[in-house]
Each structure stands twice: as C-alpha cells, then as structure tokens.
Sequence to fold (333 residues):
Amino acid sequence: MKKARFKDDVPVISVIVPMYKVANYVQECLDSIADQDFEETCEIIVVNDCSPDDSGKICRNWISTHSTTVKYIENERNMGVSSSRNRGLEAAEGEYFMFVDPDDVLPRHAMSALYQAAESFNVDIVKGNNTIFTRTSETEARYNVGSSKLVENDAILTTLYEHDRVRGHPWGKLFRREQLGCFRFPVGVRMAQDLFYCSEVFANARSLLLLDKNVYRYRKHDSGSTGRKFESGSYIDWLEAVEATAQFARNRSHLRAHKNLLVRTMTQLAREARKLPSDQAQEVLSDFEQRCRKWRIQLPGLILRDKLGLKSLSRYIKMRLAIRQIRSSLKCS
Fold:
C-alpha cells in the first residue's frame, strides 16, 4: 500500500484495530493489512486498551519495521472495545473507514474490492462476504450472498434487522466517513454493542451494497464461552441492546423485521440455555418468560398482528421447545 502523506494527502481508508490480549495473533493481523494489493493511501489506527500481555510490544516493534502509516494510541486504562473503537473513529481521517479485529485476517484483495465497489456504486456501506476459520478448517459464513445486491433507503435497516444477509458486527464492512463517521459505539454494554452501533449507522445510510466477494477471515476460538454470558449476566445486556435497536425503526417494515430479530435472539439464547446447570437455569428461565411477555412474543400475535413469516414462526416453536426443556430439567433436578 502507498504511505499516506498527511500534510497534503488524505488517506482513502482508515483501518481501525482495537487491541487487547492478542499477542498470539496481532502480528498476523497487521501483516494482512499491510500486505493488501490496495493502491490508494491508507492509515492503520491501532488502539491498545491497556493489554496486559505482549500485544503492545509486538505492535510497536511491527510499526518500527514497516513503512505503512500507523497511528498508535494507548488508552490510559482498560476501557473496553467500544471505547477503543470510538477513539479510532475520532482519529480517523480517511474518506472511508473499516474495522478489523486484531485476531482476524484480511484477504489480500479485501480493501481494493470494498473500495472499488463503494466507488463504482457510490454507496455509504459495502458489506462483503467472510469466511470463518479455526486451526484446522475454514468455511464460508452462512449469511454470505451469492450475488451482489444494491439496497437503498429504508430497506437498509430492514436488511440488518432480518439478519439473513447482514449481521450486526462492524468488521467486513466499509463505511463512508462523511455520512457515517459521527456515530459511536455505546460504552458500558457487555454484549451486542456492535449490533446497536450498526443499527444506528444502517438507519442513517443512504445506500448499501452486499458484495459477493470474501473480504474478511474471522477467527473462531475454541474457548467454550457459551455459558459465560449466563454466568456473568451479560446476556441481559444482549437482550437490552437488541430491544434498544427498535428506536431506529421508522415504519411497519422496520418493526416487523425487528420483531423477527427479537424472536431470533430469544430462540438462540433459549437453545443455548438448555445446557445450563439448574442453579443458573431457574433465573435465566424467569428472565426469558418476562422478556417474552414484554416483547409480546406469543404465537397468535406473531401471526395476526406482526404477520411474521414461516421462518420466524419456526424459530418461535424452537424457542418454546427449548424453554419447555429447561423447565422439565428443573422439575427433574
């Protein structure tokens, strides 16, 4: 990539990398960004969130041996990924910006593919396909698109709420800074802060291109973290963040798609909660039932009032079956 000359040359893309405890991966991530076939100017913004491992040392050593323009920021204290991304946004000067998590990898053509699509279609957001990889395998994401598609105006937020072709994570996307650079991630939210941010951004975008090219490699860690959200109570943050995204809905189509998102979220959490020990399951079950009442997730209303499709109704049935299984396991314990 060309090195940006800040006095007389604004970078075309700002790449924001929030960094915390990724000593095993960050160099591979930075190498993949620097090795892009992108011919325009670019800046990398690394925000070190007081990482206690060698991440900062590795990053500083990497910077000293590369000509790529890098802004290196160290938080005064551990502030969380939302604050780190926000600091990156404040420092960004590019026409476009994108996020890369420090344990993930960019394919060599990622930035050029995203930029060419943004310029060719004159869109505010380009969302590309991605793969999911581990130490032993790599697969295409289920929500990847088979052909590129232009989405405009109110349909942009509907597409995000539907969660079929777009998910609520900020990576794998290119954003036009003039239109969308003013929005920030919510601070202090432990889960789904990405979804809240993307909901606000998508609600204010004028155009979105779903690009049928792989532009991101997401690393899946075998960390066994499924139950941690229940142990820590962070699943409540997830539920509340998903609920809060309704504030961006502007019409019936948005509200219907958002109800689909609520059902999807409850179904996923209920199915995960089936594995919980009884001392945790009781409290989680109570939260689920309360949330279903608050969100009016009952079969007659989903059919008659919300007019949800078969896919959502199928999810609802799976959710009720999972809740029944949790209740049955409590009776047997």
